[in-house]
Specification:
The protein has about 150 residues and is an alpha+beta fold. The chain has one domain. It has a four-stranded mixed sheet with strand order 2-6-5-4. β4, α3 and β5 form a beta-alpha-beta unit. The radius of gyration is 17 Å and the shape is globular.
């Protein structure tokens, strides 16, 4: 399974240190966890929604990265936020699988994927393969747009 992440270059490591210090949307502080996405587009949308409200202030060191894992995620039940948080906390504690999937609230057709760096298989996950990413380049106004709208 290919997993995606849009992040700043200094934070590419799949170690979950940021979430361990500050928590993640569904994970409590004190547990390392890496937030990824099932689709590249979801990784971009999540970054836009939660981390970059002003795209003109986006850092210049953004990278879009992906990693392959040889397993399927455990599905987290998602009837409500409290159930998701409880299930993720228990999943992190038990370390019973490398990854879990949570239906995205940003794009419900895709999943947020959590990777547990404390799971024994985490050591076999290769570092992210990355490419530079720029919101200015992918969201610029296409030159043909004015021509199509004027006709």
């Amino acid at each position: 399974m290919k997993l995606w992440r849009l992040t700043r270059a200094p934070f590419m490591a799949l170690d979950g240190k940021g979430a361990e210090l500050h928590g993640a949307r569904y994970a409590p502080p004190g547990h390392p966890v890496v937030s990824l996405a099932s689709e590249a587009g979801l990784a971009v949308l999540v970054a836009m929604r939660y981390h970059l409200p002003d795209l003109s202030a986006a850092p210049g060191d953004l990278v879009l990265g992906w990693a392959e894992v040889d397993c399927l995620p455990e599905r987290v039940p998602d009837p409500d936020e409290l159930t998701i948080r409880a299930a993720v906390g228990e999943w992190l504690e038990t370390r019973r699988s490398l990854i879990c999937a949570i239906r995205s609230r940003v794009l419900p057709e895709a999943d947020v994927i959590y990777l547990n760096p404390r799971h024994p298989d985490a050591a076999r996950v290769a570092p992210l393969t990355t490419r530079a990413f720029s919101f200015a380049e992918c969201l610029h106004r296409p030159p043909m747009l004015d021509r199509f709208r004027s006709g």
